[in-house]
Amino acid sequence: MAERMHHSADVPNFDTYPASPPVSDSNHLVGRGKSSLEQRAAELGAAAGKVVCMVRQVRATAESLSSLPGFERINNLAENARVRADYLRMVAAQRAQEWAKAAREKTAELGRQAQERAADLGRHARSGYFRARLRVNHTVREYPVHVALAAGAVGFLTGVALRIRRANRAY
């Protein structure tokens, strides 16, 4: 037989075990009286009996509540509260729908007003542009030399301004 490689305190040595299990003292007590296990079982049985008795009492009390006059009143109050809450929920939903409808109508109206105002501004801009173009054409036909001199002066002044700007940015 092969030897074990290591010995440890947590590895049992089977040579030291008894050949048969020891006789417990509880076997001797059975004849004389109740063992601790039997006493514990009796206590648990008594506790379970008390719990069953209490459950039956609570059930009987709950069943007798319906015969009390206050119970009817509480039921009526609860039902009235439910009906009132449903009514208030319905009224709140109707008002929310009304407000949403009013908001949609107001938004549509403001959108139409903005569209009309934008169209009006567009017409004014087009008419102003058309009038300005007519005046420029009239001025060019009536005063061609003056327009040419003015365009030359504007070009010269623009060149001077650009040159000054470039000079200032260089430093």
Query: Which band does the percent of strand residues land in?
Result: under 5%
Q: What is the helix/strand order?
A: HHHH
- Report the mean per-residue pLDDT as an integer: 83
Given as residue ranges, the uncertain stretches (5+ residues, pLDDT < 50) are: none
| Helical content (DSSP H or I, runs of 4+) | over 70%
Number of helices: 4
Distance between the termini: 103 Å
Number of distinct beta strands: 0
Could you characterize the architecture of this molecule?
This protein has 171 residues and is an all-alpha fold. The chain has a domain at 35-65. It has four helices and no strands. Helix 3 crosses helix 4.
Topology readout:
Elements: H1 25-32, H2 36-65, H3 69-142, H4 144-170
Short description:
By secondary structure, this protein is an all-alpha fold.
Keywords:
mainly alpha, 171 residues, elongated
